[in-house]
Design a protein that fits this description.
The structure holds two protein chains of two kinds. Chain A is mainly alpha-helical. Chain A has a domain of about 70 residues. Chain A is built from four helices and no strands. In chain A, helix 2 packs antiparallel against helix 4 and helix 3 packs antiparallel against helix 4. In chain B, helix 13 packs parallel to helix 17. The chains are: A mainly alpha, B alpha/beta.
Amino acid sequence: MSFLSEALWVLLLGSLLGLELIGKVPPTLHTPLMSGANAISGITMLAALTLIIKSGDQLPLLVMGSIALGFALFNVIGGFLVTDRMLAMFSRKSSNGRGNR
Amino acid sequence: MNFAETFKFVIDLVSVFLLALGIKGLSKVRSAREANQLAAFAMLLAVVGLLINSAITIGISFNAFIWIILGSAIGGLLGLVTAQRVPMTAMPETVALFNGCGGMSSLLVAIAVSLFPDGMAYGDSQRGLVEIISIVVSVFVGAITFSGSIIAMAKLQGWLSTPIWTQSKIRHLVNIIFAVFSLVGAFELLITGQSGLWLLVFGSGLLGIGVTLPIGGADMPVVISLLNSYSGVAASAAGFVVGSQLLIVAGAMVGAAGLILTQVMCNGMNRSLVSVLFGGALGDSNTSLGSGDSEYLNITNCSVEECALTLETAERVVVVPGYGLAVAQAQHTLREVTRVLESGGIEVNYAIHPVAGRMPGHMNVLLAEADVPYEQLKEMDTINPEFPATDVVLVLGANDVVNPQAKNDSSSPLYGMPVLDVHEARTVFVIKRGMSAGYSGIKNDLFEMANTSMVFGDAKKVLGDLLVELKELGVGRKL
């Protein structure tokens, strides 16, 4: 049960860390933060990758893993890019008026 | 611990550290963009670490490689295109869509592991209850996240309205039935380790729909934020399924962060999470158009010309942007109007209520898109003491957040909600499509006050007309 007990500690500490990290955010950043956190939750792509790698070449596992990976990457790539787009608009003013959308 | 394991361990630690730094950095305006890139880098690092470790230890077969490339290419490309195409006003539904896909991913992994239990992370000795429990959690949360997010997106896009029956008590019964289905499925899966999976999948999927469908447009951001939190939990559960501590930590961080954000949003609207989830829609802004006409008695109607004339003589103007501005996509026209005012020597500020727009901070994003200087965006606590010294307030598509009832009338359902004290300004212009009620469906006393004038029309059109009038008056023309 060592993985389980370790994993439960990790779960507990990770949750506490999450609570602390977000504590003091200006309202301006709530939408970008939500979008960024959403992109990070796409880390589940690691699970999809593991599934494919350990599939032992069983076709159903490969296909499901691949679809799961696609969904996760859609979340990750789209999430980070959209967050960057939003944040770029905040920093545009400080970078002498030029900036991309 | 051999080399490959140590390598993986170090990479995982660094990734988690960078992810935490990323989330932390996202909470400061200056560092936010770099923090986002840092988090993206951390994610890439974690993926590379996993791939290299697997390549060394168990090897990645050619077939696996092909399917990895295929999945990543399709998903990544769609994400890229979506992120670039989507307009800023559609941000909440976009986040919902991404979120749903994250949930779907965790769901699929759990289903796959459940159907084909061979060769997954746990050695044969440790497979059993832990894995089954994490599969159950992952399926349950993943399915709710997916179906709930898709419904949320469809409702925000206007593809779905709130069905009448979901406003009656029946919906609780229906949801309880779905919940019982999921529970039965979950127990069956726990006991047999195999059957009951599909009952759990469909039960929780339907539960996600049943819970999200009755919720009105105004509360939707809260739900998205909550579902965002769920997708973190789903990722964490998937971490238990495949035995990845990195996934568990990252998922837990996102889950906790989502909860905090959800709480912040609820506070801003003076609603409890329970009433958002189970109270149903208070008054859907789409369905109640024009229904409140007769309740108002002393409305001062006013033309765009009068509004322009008053603005011309003002010294300090405060703009209160709201949901209506976002819907009308009028932020660029607004910016043109305020540019004219500013070049006429008029001081312009923007009062941003914590829940203005469709999500906290959404309005800031929209105004930033329209090039409004960050310093002019004032938060509620900063701007409220300044209203008595303000000549003109322009309320653009905001309603409940400027309702003085929240301060004065202890019998009002809004009582206690923090509002902008616009009624303390000398003159208030409310630009609105009609006399429809706000999210809450509650009458707004502000509209009947002596210093308030209503300008009816679509925010974008009214602002366009206002711009023409102001230019005709010669405001801002440098001589």
